[in-house]
Design a protein that fits this description.
Helix content: 40-55%
Radius of gyration: 15 Å
Order of helices and strands: HEHEEHEHHHHH
Number of helices: 8
Number of domains: 1
Strand order of the largest sheet: 1-4-2-3
Length: 127
Amino acid sequence: MQDVVEAIAPLIETRYGGIDPVHEADDQSKLAALAADMEVNGWQGAPLVVAGEQALTGAHRYLAARRADIEIPRVQIDDVCELYGVDWAALEDTYGCCDGYDWYEAARHLDEVLPVAVIDYLGIDVH
């Protein structure tokens, strides 16, 4: 796992916002607990995975970080794919559809093309 963390680290950028969460936070107590922890400890763990400005992971972490007013680390999925020899644009073309959610359909297949350690570290579970 450390190899994955080190390989992805140079791809991470940090911002305060500019991300659209994949869904709303459905567990308000989880959100409040995360925000309180982030106020004390900052961001812990893997960066959010984004496609452009659309988050593929971490809706609760994103919203908690906004509440805690801390910077949010993120990594572009096309950069991660390139690092591991996967063509993100081809995935979008293969699994995309005409409703503007090509990224979501493509993301559902990432576990088929990226190493398990990458999927686990980044918390990619879009099913």
